[in-house]
Amino acid sequence: MEFLDLNRQYRIIKKEVNQAIQKVLDSGHFILGPEVEELEGQIAKYCGVKYGVGVNSGTDALLLSLMALGIGKGDEVITTPFTFMATAETIVMCGARPIFVDIDSATFNIDVDKIEEVITKKTKAIIPVHLYGQPAEMDKMIRIARKYKLRIIEDCAQAIGAKYKNKKVGSMGDLGCFSFFPSKNLGACGDGGMVATNNKKLAEKIRMLRAHGSRKKYYHEIIGTNSRLSTIQAAILLVKLKYLDEWTKVRQKIARHYSRSFGKFINLRAPFVASNRTHVFHQYTIRVNKQKRDKLIDYLKQQDIPTAIYYLLPLHLQPSMKFLGYKKGDFPVAEKAAREVLSLPIYPELNINKEQNRIINTINKFIIKQAREMKNKVFHFRAGADNTGLTPFIN
Ligand SMILES: *Cc1c(COP(=O)(O)O)cnc(C)c1O
Predict the structure, then answer these.
(1) Which of 103, 132, 180, 200 has its Cβ near the most Cβ atoms within 10 Å?
(2) What spacing in Å lies between the alpha carbon of 159 and ligand 1's midpoint?
(3) What pLDDT digit, counting tens, does each position of 169-182 carry?
(4) What is the pTM of this model?
(5) Are residues 14 and 141 located together in one domain of the fold?
(6) What is the domain extent for residue 266?
(7) What CATH number does the domain containing 311 carry?
């Protein structure tokens, strides 16, 4: 079994994808062709915003967003240490300083109640990450941003289609950044990204930034870069976008099946997704007591069941971020999550009857085996530390 088998999806939509690629090949219009504009319009509509700007990657979506807001040297940007490197890396790339805020243990997203403590005169923006596909707590964040006149850049790389109070991610901040990296819920066959916004000026600026700061060819108004979305990728994404909601529903179904089954076998309170949010399950992540995580990973691997850890080392402890001066213990909730999280295979083409049930049964066997080894100690799943039951936990 593979953690993610992209080939299965391709086999299902092969004809359509191949046709879309062939059409671009025949047109010869490879950079910013009509499919890019079409996709920009469709993604904007999908997210409920006015503008979409296609760029070369999710990383560039973040970088160009920061640049478009004029964020640079001497500025501070607040974000979470429990995310993919790109979120904080781009803050450094544009010359500003990442200021980390610990996460909420139940959702793994930035703890909004701790944001105000770190705001200074230098703070310019907040980058929430909708990790694993679940939206961060946006209402409180938006109130804080208004109060201190801060911008919000949503990192939606893992959460396309997820809703917070009926608003799609990417539509609540000043800018929403999407990634079409192949493994994402909407993935291209190469790199790709998009910025979504309601702000016409910002959209226009990002359009310039992605094309060397120019609106007219060879007339460069500002310093930009090369970050265009390839027409072939846009054509492929247009095919896939039609299926995205369907695929998301299957992901949610698989997640429900995991949670229910774990509940039946081992006293797990099913993961609770707040009623004002939808989770698009880019990852299905459980928590495992740190002494047992490696054992469980090995046990599953022996049965040909792959797992993944997102993320093993929080960003404030990464060698490249050492210059920021953070140390172990600064963000205990994120550090604990890094020791305990374990993501199980979840993708729309995963076979529920064969593969998913095998994963569930194998985990169940592991827990029984552990319990026997420890004799009288009772092993069971329990809810996350804050008791909201958002995350399955093997203790
Ligand atoms: C994937 C990802 C990115 C970067 O996207 P790329 O397209 O790979 O550059 C940024 N942030 C998060 C949270 C991601 O998961």
Answers:
(1) 180
(2) 11
(3) 999 999 999 999 99
(4) 0.94
(5) yes
(6) 244-370
(7) 3.90.1150.10
